[in-house]
Specification:
Blueprint: H1 5-18, E1 23-31, E2 37-46, E3 51-55, H2 62-68, E4 77-82, E5 85-86, H3 92-98, E6 99-102, H4 115-125, H5 130-143, H6 159-171, E7 177-181, H7 189-201, E8 205-209, H8 213-219, E9 222-227, E10 230-236, H9 237-240, H10 244-249
Parallel strand pairs: 3-8, 3-9, 6-7, 7-8
Antiparallel strand pairs: 1-2, 1-4, 4-5, 9-10
Length: 255
């Protein structure tokens, strides 16, 4: 390769990444060490800024799929790409900065004495200057409606507040993609309404696993149905939720 051609090649690669899907999964299969096959030839892509629900019965493979999207599990067969970057051992650090994974139980992500410490944890370990860390914490807490909670102790907060704080720990990393597991589980009606407003307002690409079919109908224009490790349906939410035969076949109910 000549020196003159390098910039063009670099620019072409950057342009390809800029136009790539936010998430692209192709032929993904995965089995656990005991032989249980959790994913079978899963294929889908999500465009930048798209909000997609992931639904299916318990044991369908939803959690296993989500753990592949930020490199906690690496593909055994098939590929997973984030913003045009394939996930592998070399890229996993970059991928985890781009994909924010929020677990169902906020206490899995809140372990520090104060909310500020929890939300600052990621930026601190990125080696950012103190001023930028403070700015990121303030911005993340404002995004989830928790401005002024910096000094609060997480275990003294409500479940809904802890869930939002857990999301803030991810937002402080400035991810382009959010992957959420059962964000509405255990919330009271007020907390659920606040969550819906938050999900609608956030600009990130989003894949959300949930059993809350009303949440699916209210927030997500597109839905994936996963069952027995396979994508059995992928389409407009309003159409899929009207298909009673499809929903019943996969252990789901209309909202």
């Amino acid at each position: 390769m000549t020196t003159a051609s390098r910039p063009a090649t670099f620019e072409a690669a950057e342009e390809a990444r800029a136009t790539a899907p936010a998430l692209a999964v192709a032929g993904l299969s995965f089995a656990y060490p005991d032989g249980f096959v959790a994913l079978r030839d899963v294929t889908f892509s999500i465009a930048p800024g798209e909000k997609v629900a992931l639904i299916g019965p318990n044991g369908a493979g939803k959690s296993t799929l989500m753990l592949h999207l930020n490199g906690i599990h690496l593909p055994q067969q098939g590929t997973v790409m984030v913003n045009g970057i394939p996930i592998d051992r070399k890229s996993v650090g970059r991928v985890r900065a781009a994909v924010g994974l929020v677990f169902q139980d906020p206490d899995d992500q809140l372990f520090s004495p104060t909310v500020f410490d929890d939300v600052a944890f990621g930026p601190l370990h990125m080696g950012l200057p103190a001023e930028e860390i403070v700015e990121r914490v303030e911005r993340a807490l404002a995004a989830v409606g928790l401005s002024g909670f910096e000094g609060r102790q997480p275990h003294h907060m409500s479940l809904g507040q802890r869930k939002r704080a857990a999301l803030a720990t991810v937002l402080s990393m400035d991810p382009s993609v959010l992957v959420l597991d059962e964000p509405s589980a255990g919330l009271d009606p007020r907390g659920r309404r606040e969550l819906i407003r938050l999900l609608l307002d956030l600009p990130q690409t989003m894949l959300v696993s949930t059993h809350d079919m009303r949440l699916v109908a209210e927030v997500f224009p597109r839905t994936l149905i996963l069952d027995e490790g396979r994508v059995v349906a992928d389409g407009p939410t309003d159409q899929l939720l009207q298909d009673e035969e499809l929903l019943e076949a996969h252990g789901l109910e209309r909202p």
